Amino acid sequence: MNRRRALASWRIVLGAIVAWPIALAWAAQGTWVVPLPGQTVVMSERPLAGVEIQPPPSLAEASIDRVRWTFHTDTPAPALKAWLCQQTFCLPLVGRQGETLRFSGRSAASPFRLRFQLPVTDHGVDRVRVSASQLIIDYRG
C-alpha cells in the first residue's frame, strides 16, 4: 500500500514538473491590438510615411509571433500600395487585410509604421482616405 502511495506521489510531482514550463509558455503569450488613425493619401511619386505606432512598455522583452492588419479606403483605389515597416524592414502588403510571419522573432518593442503610396496614374483618383485601420501583434514574452 505504501508503495502505491509513493508511486502516485511521484506521478503528481513529475506531472507538475512537466506541466510547469508549458504553463509558463502559455502565460507569456499575448496580443496587442492597435486601432490606427485615419489618413489621407494623395497622389505622389513617394510613399507617405504614416504615424509611428509605439508599442506599450510591457512589450519591452517580447518577441513577435505573427502580425495581422486591416484597412479600408473611402473610394476604390486599385493602384494604392501599402507597406508595413518596423525599423528598416518594410514588407509590401498584398491586400487590405492579411497576416504575416515575416516579423516573427523580431522585437515587439520596436515601433511599426504603415506606409502608403498612391502612384501618379490616369485612373481619376488623386487622393484616398484610409480608415478603419488596425494592427494586431501576437507576441511571446
Automatic annotation (TrEMBL):
InterPro entries: FlhE. Pfam families: FlhE (PF06366). It comes from the Bacteria. This is Flagellar protein FlhE. It comes from Salinicola acroporae.
